[in-house]
């Protein structure tokens, strides 16, 4: 139950060759095996789940940190995770449906959870895998008996709708 971090300098600095500069072994919470990852491109942190833990690692650190507060997240066995365009972390579980975790402000240590189950339209509370499609604004959940799709406007990436000739000032 650990995470290996490899530091590789840009190939341009090594004549085009990939050379490993350093390898670090980072213990995971409770020394459990990592199951899935999601990269937060906005702040450079890597989110990770084990069967029963959620943690993140900031780009400049060599430790995994568990959020100090996850309001609304009940104990569960995690199966999958992804990140949406809003920066929310989505977790699939083996028997409790899915959770969407939102940061309170910019803090990764204080998260609030929305819970999605069969009552909210999931085919099953057992989620084997999940994926967020930012182009179509959909969350996909794979279950043993089929697939559930949520279509949500807040999952769409609006950047593709912006053009370089958009007026700098908008008046209403």
Give the H and E element order: EEEEEEEEEEEEE
**Uncertain regions spanning at least 5 consecutive residues:** none
SS elements, strand count = 13
Shape: globular
The number of helical elements comes to 0
The spatial strand order of the largest sheet comes to 6-10-9-8-7
- Helix percentage: under 10%
| Range of strand content | 35-45%
**What structural class do the secondary elements suggest?**
mainly beta
Give the overall average pLDDT.
88
Radius of gyration: 19 Å
Described by strand count, sense and barrel closure, the largest sheet is:
5 strands, mixed
Q: What is the distance, rounded to the nearest whole angstrom, between the alpha carbons of the first and last residues?
A: 55 Å
Structure description:
The protein has 172 residues and is an all-beta fold. Helices cover 0% and strands 43% of the residues. The protein is built from no helices and 13 strands. Strand 4 (45-49) and strand 5 (54-57) form a beta hairpin. The protein is globular.
Structure summarized in a few sentences:
The chain has 172 residues and is mainly beta. The protein contains no helices and 13 strands. It has strands at residues 2-7, 22-27, 36-40, 45-49, 54-57, 69-71, 78-83, 89-93, 98-104, 107-116, 129-133, 138-143, 146-151.
Q: What attributes characterize this protein structure?
A:
globular; mainly beta; single chain; 172 residues
């Amino acid at each position: 139950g650990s995470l290996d971090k490899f530091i590789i300098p840009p190939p341009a600095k090594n004549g085009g060759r990939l050379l490993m500069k350093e390898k670090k072994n980072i213990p995971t919470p409770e020394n459990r095996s990592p199951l899935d990852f999601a990269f937060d491109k906005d702040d450079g942190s890597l989110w990770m789940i084990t069967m029963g833990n959620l943690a993140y690692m900031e780009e400049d650190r060599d430790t995994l940190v568990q959020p100090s507060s996850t309001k609304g997240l009940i104990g569960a066995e995690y199966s999958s995770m992804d990140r949406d365009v809003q920066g929310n972390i989505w977790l699939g579980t083996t028997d409790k449906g899915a959770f969407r975790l939102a940061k309170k402000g910019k803090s990764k240590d204080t998260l609030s959870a929305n819970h999605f189950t069969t009552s909210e339209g999931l085919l099953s509370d057992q989620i084997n895998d999940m994926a967020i499609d930012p182009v179509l604004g959909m969350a996909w959940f794979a279950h043993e008996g089929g697939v559930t799709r949520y279509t949500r406007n807040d999952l769409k990436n609006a950047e593709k709708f912006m053009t370089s000739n958009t007026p700098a000032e908008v008046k209403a």
